[in-house]
């Protein structure tokens, strides 16, 4: 069975291999995987589903040019900043209760955002979605680790989960365009309610309860300090685009960023009884490489979706529906790259797949940097979309699998949370930084017309994004192990001792 095996096939094989008293029926196992994949799809697509709707949101609620990016960043900042804390919630309340609570909170925040009447209300609702996502994303992987036995079956289940994560952003842009044009921009938030209803029903029927570990404590202080450091850095970059790097507000935010980052490191190293990340975990080669790579990917892709959506609507004059359809080549490239990732990695190794995928992604971003005001969809958009998406899709799946392959089972969730947090925080910082680049470059465009000035700013942003992905490709080529490392044995009596876990 190859990487593209269906959920039902994976479930059947899991039942055959697991055996014993903890064996789960094929139908239930397939339903469990379908549940966690639906949850992961909703969490990931909500990063990008608002992108095509941004011009409509701006017209309806009245954002300033710099503040509009907070519709995206409010979600990614809270999501990324609290992912590690969210992973601990399952330890305290159990995976089943955590996923049901997270789904309920996501639905509530989506409804409130859909009814927002001003920018502040929408940004607050997006932050609430991010909080719910921070609980749902790590617990979905924990459920896979509990349900599927060690070996090829679990690897394929994680591959399906990672493929959904890789393709979710592209699906979000397409869905956002359809909803905004056919209904209203508010439906990019309301659409989560029926998704939650389906996922909630599936979770009630399929997700097993896991033993709660009452001794665990949430590292709230560490989580607040880490999130504050990233939020202040993003705020400083947004302000730099509007006020300049020498302004008092920008400098103060940068100083506070450093203070919070230093306090976070000191707290985690010497004070926290239950740190968000075990200090030694960051030193594991596969973990730190995967974390660094995915941070660059997040910076390039989240910002890329943002600027590509603005180009299609503000420059080419596309409707939201037409803009969403324009991302179909990107969606197809991500899916094809993700499907091909497993067989390619099995034959050529993670190093070649990850570094090669990143190189393709960088080429695609650099091709985007050649856009002009008179570029058409066929002449300027299709080729960069296909090249960038195929490379990023292949890289994301291989990078996720590589990142958790060298850690003990009881730390897989922690490693996954760290990698996911890096992607979201990297995306927030990247979007803020590249927005500043675009805003600063636009007034210096030689062309007098406004459209060309906008495109000049977008081109500079895509150029920097391409260079970021090139740096990630170099890191992967040098540091990704040529062979998959063996997984360390878990400590006896540790957190791995959960019902159903081998």
Automatic annotation (TrEMBL):
<protein>
    <submittedName>
        <fullName>MFS transporter</fullName>
    </submittedName>
</protein>
<feature type="transmembrane region" description="Helical">
    <location>
        <begin position="377"/>
        <end position="400"/>
    </location>
</feature>
<feature type="transmembrane region" description="Helical">
    <location>
        <begin position="352"/>
        <end position="371"/>
    </location>
</feature>
<feature type="transmembrane region" description="Helical">
    <location>
        <begin position="244"/>
        <end position="267"/>
    </location>
</feature>
<keyword id="KW-1133">Transmembrane helix</keyword>
<keyword id="KW-0472">Membrane</keyword>
<feature type="transmembrane region" description="Helical">
    <location>
        <begin position="185"/>
        <end position="206"/>
    </location>
</feature>
<feature type="transmembrane region" description="Helical">
    <location>
        <begin position="128"/>
        <end position="148"/>
    </location>
</feature>
<dbReference type="InterPro" id="IPR036259">
    <property type="entry name" value="MFS_trans_sf"/>
</dbReference>
<feature type="transmembrane region" description="Helical">
    <location>
        <begin position="32"/>
        <end position="54"/>
    </location>
</feature>
<feature type="transmembrane region" description="Helical">
    <location>
        <begin position="321"/>
        <end position="340"/>
    </location>
</feature>
<feature type="transmembrane region" description="Helical">
    <location>
        <begin position="98"/>
        <end position="116"/>
    </location>
</feature>
<dbReference type="Pfam" id="PF07690">
    <property type="entry name" value="MFS_1"/>
</dbReference>
<dbReference type="InterPro" id="IPR020846">
    <property type="entry name" value="MFS_dom"/>
</dbReference>
<feature type="transmembrane region" description="Helical">
    <location>
        <begin position="461"/>
        <end position="480"/>
    </location>
</feature>
<feature type="transmembrane region" description="Helical">
    <location>
        <begin position="160"/>
        <end position="179"/>
    </location>
</feature>
<keyword id="KW-1003">Cell membrane</keyword>
<keyword id="KW-0813">Transport</keyword>
<dbReference type="InterPro" id="IPR011701">
    <property type="entry name" value="MFS"/>
</dbReference>
<feature type="transmembrane region" description="Helical">
    <location>
        <begin position="60"/>
        <end position="86"/>
    </location>
</feature>
<feature type="transmembrane region" description="Helical">
    <location>
        <begin position="287"/>
        <end position="309"/>
    </location>
</feature>
<keyword id="KW-0812">Transmembrane</keyword>
<feature type="transmembrane region" description="Helical">
    <location>
        <begin position="218"/>
        <end position="238"/>
    </location>
</feature>
<feature type="domain" description="Major facilitator superfamily (MFS) profile">
    <location>
        <begin position="32"/>
        <end position="484"/>
    </location>
</feature>
């Amino acid at each position: 069975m190859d990487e593209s095996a269906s959920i039902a096939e994976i479930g059947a094989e899991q039942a055959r291999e697991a055996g014993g008293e903890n064996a789960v029926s094929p139908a239930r196992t397939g339903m469990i995987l379908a549940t966690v994949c639906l949850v992961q799809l909703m969490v990931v697509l909500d990063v990008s589903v608002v992108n095509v709707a941004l011009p409509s949101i701006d017209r309806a609620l009245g954002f300033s040019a710099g503040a509009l990016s907070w519709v995206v960043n409010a979600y990614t900042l809270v999501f990324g900043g609290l992912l590690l804390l969210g992973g601990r919630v399952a330890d305290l309340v159990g995976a089943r209760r955590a996923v049901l609570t997270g789904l309920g909170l996501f639905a509530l925040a989506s409804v409130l955002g859909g009814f927002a009447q001003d920018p502040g209300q929408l940004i607050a609702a997006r932050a609430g979605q991010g909080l719910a996502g921070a609980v749902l994303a790590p617990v979905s992987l924990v459920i896979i680790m509990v349900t599927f036995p060690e070996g090829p079956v679990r690897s394929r289940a994680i591959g399906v989960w990672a493929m959904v994560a890789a393709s979710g952003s592209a699906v979000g842009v397409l869905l956002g365009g359809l909803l905004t044009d056919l209904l209203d921009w508010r439906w990019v938030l309301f659409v989560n309610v029926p998704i939650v209803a389906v996922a909630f029903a599936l979770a009630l029927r399929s997700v097993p309860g896991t033993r709660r570990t009452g001794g665990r404590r949430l590292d709230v202080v560490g989580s607040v300090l880490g999130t504050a450091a990233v939020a202040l850095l993003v705020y400083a970059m947004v302000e730099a685009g509007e006020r300049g790097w020498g302004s008092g507000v920008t400098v103060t935010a940068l100083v506070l960023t450093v203070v919070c980052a230093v306090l976070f490191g000191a707290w985690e190293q010497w004070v926290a009884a239950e740190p968000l990340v075990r200090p030694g975990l960051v030193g594991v080669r596969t973990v730190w490489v995967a974390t660094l790579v995915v941070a660059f990917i997040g910076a390039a892709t989240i910002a890329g979706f943002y600027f590509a959506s603005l180009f299609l609507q503000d420059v080419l004059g596309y409707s939201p529906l037409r803009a969403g359809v324009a991302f179909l080549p990107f969606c197809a490239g991500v899916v094809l790259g993700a499907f091909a990732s497993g067989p390619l990695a099995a034959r050529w190794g993670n190093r070649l797949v990850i570094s090669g995928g990143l190189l393709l992604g960088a080429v695609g971003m650099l091709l985007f940097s050649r856009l002009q005001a008179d570029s058409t969809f066929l002449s300027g958009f299709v080729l960069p979309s296909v090249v960038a998406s195929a490379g990023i899709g292949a890289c994301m799946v291989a990078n996720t699998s590589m990142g958790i392959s060298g850690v003990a089972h009881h730390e897989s969730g922690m490693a996954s949370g760290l990698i996911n947090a890096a992607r979201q925080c990297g995306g927030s910082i990247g979007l803020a930084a590249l927005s500043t680049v675009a805003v600063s470059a636009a007034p210096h465009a030689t062309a007098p017309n406004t459209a060309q000035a906008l495109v000049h700013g977008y081109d500079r942003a895509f150029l920097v994004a391409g260079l970021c992905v090139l740096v990630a490709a170099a890191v992967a080529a040098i540091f990704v192990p040529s062979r998959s490392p063996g997984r360390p044995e878990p400590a006896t009596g540790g957190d791995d001792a959960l019902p159903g876990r081998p």
